[in-house]
Write a structure and sequence with these properties.
Layout: H1 14-37, H2 40-45, E1 49-61, E2 64-70, E3 83-88, H3 96-101, E4 103-111, E5 116-121, E6 134-139, H4 150-158, H5 163-172, H6 194-205, E7 208-212, H7 219-232, E8 237-241, H8 244-257, E9 263-266, E10 280-282, H9 285-298, E11 303-307, H10 308-311, H11 313-326, H12 339-355, E12 367-370, H13 378-385, E13 391-395, H14 417-424, E14 429-431, E15 434-435, H15 440-450, E16 456-457, H16 491-494, E17 500-504, H17 515-530, E18 538-541, H18 545-562, E19 574-576, H19 578-581, E20 586-592, H20 598-608, H21 611-618, E21 621-629, H22 632-635, H23 641-647, H24 669-690, E22 694-696, H25 698-707
Parallel strand pairs: 7-13, 7-14, 8-11, 8-12, 9-10, 9-11, 12-13, 15-16, 17-21, 17-22, 18-19, 18-20, 20-21
Antiparallel strand pairs: 1-2, 1-6, 2-5, 3-4, 3-6, 4-5
Helix pairs in contact: 1-4, 1-12, 4-12, 4-13, 6-7, 7-8, 11-12, 17-18, 17-25
């Protein structure tokens, strides 16, 4: 048996999982209720409201109605698949009025170029909207009450006497052996590299395989190869993920490798937009029923993609059919729910699972492959895991984790299913070690910081450098303008041989927006466009949506000021947060650090300094990475008494900071993670300083700002120009 079972993880208890799900739901619901209590302008400030969208028409697309609105820009953080509340535009409508007047829709997509927003109803209509009338769009309450719906039913199955429950309990106790099945005779495809071939062989031969795919290592390509391998063996493959984007990428990769592969996706209209047209789309209810019936009866090899909720559909249908009969057994909720309530609830959901006569594993699928498993919580993963006793998880727990909103005493439940199982089964976890995105310079820091020095560039891109796409447009200094060619603002940046640069702006007092950084990034971007860079190869990242909006505004203003003749298309030119850009890559990445207010840093340290967010941000670039920000972020010291004491004491009279000491000082556990994260950022800074990869852009950013105000609102604000106080280090 795998020695990894000795890893010290407390056993899972059903009562704790149910309580965790309930607290998460309540935290999200409270946030929504609070948001609804705000005035419309305040909700817009929180990026949780589209103040006005004008309804144009309703049209039928297949079996689904789509509602089209005119929207000049999307000021919210709403994205495809979000559940929203649509209300007639009224002054001061908020609170219970929103929920009473609102109709629930799903965000399909926003066409920024044509200023069109498309929604479709979440339930059967018809919804009668008046053409030409303005509507407001808000966030809505979480869809499912977890203790009485899908997620709790999944917990019930896990702790039941059903075959699925027995197998998965063994899995989460570390008791699944590394290889209980006959080794596969299928040879890995020649297009895979050595480590990928090793992962391919393990995946086809073991009941459980975890594949860690650091940035640019071709994990989606490998996932597609594994799925096709199982299909060759006559097996039915389920690819599941939390997002439609991940599913579409995986299915598209399958069809890229084998255009004749039998593929299908259970989806909604919005989830099929970027899907390869060769993949069958299962959208209507009748099509879905037929799909599940045929899958169980015919057992023909098929690669199917669906979200975790879509995968649970055949089980939820059976549970729904007997739920009313068992309602008298369901415990009633109280204001305060102690241990006895959770014990009773667990008994209830176990009874539901065992009474529903669910199909055994392998009825519909022979293998389940999870993509982006490092962003999936354990209870959510259960909904797809029930289908088979061969499970493959692909992810990277050194990148963004699942989103949780509530503190819980059982910290293991806040981990992704990938991280949880990788601790239990290190021998069944394999890391891909060759990056096809990051050159030698770009891979060095993340490799040492996050992957124990094992991540390396593929030989063919090891020495790749940032290149100017249009050779006719030379890097000229401002003032030496040639006929028909706009001079570049920053030849010193583009002529610099480094693939990674830090552009320093000595500002202070910035919290969630920095006009100086926005102006500098706008001009850097315009330089790229003048050089002939396609907009789709440029990515701009900042931690806050307000800064992203400011950067877009600066781009438009500076584009007019410099008269470049370029038409900005924000469908191609990505300006977004780290969360939205994970899994993507661009030739050049510009990062705005924004914050230079120490008190705000103290409040936001857990979010801003998160090493996994930093890892994602600095590993998106193929050619050049540019960080723009104040040095305050790298010089800041937390106000923890222990930190201040360690920074300067009798044993350390020179005040040498911990990240430069040979022996790391000890901190209380609650502060240790913050110090480790801070040290990571400081190491990155000192590495760039020592290698002369820092350029001071303070004066340049001030000049650009003075030339063109982003908006009139800054004219009456205190100057954003003051330099940060000089500090040693």
């Amino acid at each position: 048996m795998e020695k990894s079972a000795e890893v010290a993880l407390a056993p899972l208890r059903g009562e704790e999982i149910l309580e965790f799900l309930d607290k998460e739901f309540r935290a999200q619901a409270k946030e929504t209720f609070f948001c609804h209590s705000l005035f419309r302008e305040e909700r817009v400030e929180q990026f949780l409201c589209v103040p006005e969208a004008r309804f144009l028409r309703a049209q039928t697309n297949g079996n689904q109605k789509v509602y089209e609105f005119y929207l000049s820009q999307n000021p919210s953080k709403f994205r495809e698949g979000d559940y929203l509340l649509l209300t007639p535009y009224q002054n001061n409508l908020r609170g219970a009025g929103l929920r009473k007047e609102g109709k629930e829709f799903i965000f399909s997509y926003f066409d920024e170029k044509n200023k069109r927003l498309y929604l479709h109803p979440s339930r059967k209509g018809p919804f009668l909207l008046k053409e030409g009338k303005k509507y407001t769009i808000d966030t809505t309450l979480p869809r499912f009450y977890p203790t009485y719906s899908y997620l709790s039913w999944g917990v019930g199955i896990l702790f039941s006497s059903l075959d699925q429950g027995k197998f998965l309990r063994s899995l989460f106790q570390g008791k699944v052996p590394p290889s209980s099945q006959k080794p596969s005779s299928l040879e890995p495809p020649d297009h895979l590299r050595e480590k990928q071939k090793e992962a391919f062989y393990k995946a086809l031969s073991q009941p459980l395989t975890l594949i860690q795919g650091p940035p640019g290592t071709g994990k989606t390509h490998l996932l597609a190869s594994i799925a096709l391998g199982f299909q060759k063996l006559g097996q039915r493959v389920l690819i599941s993920a939390f997002t439609h984007r991940a599913l579409n990428n995986a299915l598209n990769a399958v069809l890229k490798l084998n255009p004749q592969a039998e593929t299908a996706k259970i989806t909604s209209l919005h989830g099929a937009r970027d899907l390869d047209p060769r993949c069958s789309r299962i959208i209507s209810s009748s099509e879905k029923k037929r799909f599940w019936h045929n899958l169980a009866q015919e057992k023909s090899p098929l690669i199917s993609g669906m979200t975790i909720y879509g995968a649970f559909s055949p089980f939820s249908s059976r549970i729904m059919s007997i739920r009313k009969k068992l309602k008298p057994l369901r415990p009633k909720r109280k204001k305060w729910m102690g241990p006895q309530f959770w014990e009773t609830l667990l008994k209830y959901v176990k009874t539901v699972a065992e009474t529903a006569q669910l199909e055994p594993p392998n009825t519909y699928f022979d293998v389940v492959i999870f993509d982006e498993a490092s962003q999936l919580l354990l209870p959510h993963s259960l909904l797809a895991m029930f289908h088979a006793k061969k499970i493959i998880l692909v992810g990277d727990h050194a990148q963004l984790p699942p989103i949780t909103s509530h503190y819980h005493k059982k910290e293991e439940l806040k981990k992704s299913v990938f991280e949880y199982l990788s601790h239990l089964y290190p021998g069944q976890t394999i890391m891909l070690e060759e990056s096809f995105r990051l050159n030698q310079e770009l891979v060095q820091f993340p490799s040492n910081a996050f992957y124990s020095g094992r991540l390396r560039p593929a030989e063919e891109i090891r020495n790749r450098k940032f290149e100017i796409p249009n050779k006719k447009k030379k890097l000229e200094k401002p003032g030496k303008e040639k006929m028909g060619i706009e001079p570049l603002s920053f030849p010193e940046v583009w002529n610099h041989s480094a693939s990674s640069l830090y552009l320093k702006i000595s500002h202070h007092g910035a919290t969630i927006e920095s006009p100086l950084e926005a102006c500098l990034i706008a001009d850097l971007t315009l330089d790229l466009l003048i050089m002939g860079f396609p907009q789709k190869e440029i990515g701009i990242i900042s931690p806050y949506r307000r800064q992203n909006n400011l950067i877009k505004s600066a781009l438009e203003k500076r584009n007019q000021f410099r008269k470049t003749g370029e038409r900005l298309d924000f469908n191609l030119l990505v300006v977004d947060t780290v969360d939205r850009i994970q899994g993507q890559e661009r030739e050049i990445i510009l990062i705005s650090l924004v914050v230079s207010e120490e008190a705000f840093l103290e409040e936001e340290q857990e979010f801003l300094l998160d090493p996994r967010r930093f890892n994602v941000a600095i590993t998106r670039a193929k050619g050049k990475l540019i960080l723009v920000g104040s040095p305050i972020l790298f010089r800041w010291v937390p106000s923890f008494p222990k930190v201040q004491e360690t920074w300067m004491n009798q044993e350390n009279p020179l005040g040498i900071p911990p990240y430069l000491q040979e022996k790391e000082p000890s901190f209380p556990s609650s502060q240790k993670s913050t110090m480790q994260a801070l040290n990571l950022w400081k190491k990155w800074y000192f590495q760039h300083r020592d290698e002369e990869k820092i350029l001071d852009m303070t004066e340049a950013s001030q000049r650009i700002f003075q030339e063109t105000f982003i908006s009139s609102e800054f004219k009456n604000k205190p100057s954003p120009f003051p330099l940060a106080p000089t500090k040693k280090g």
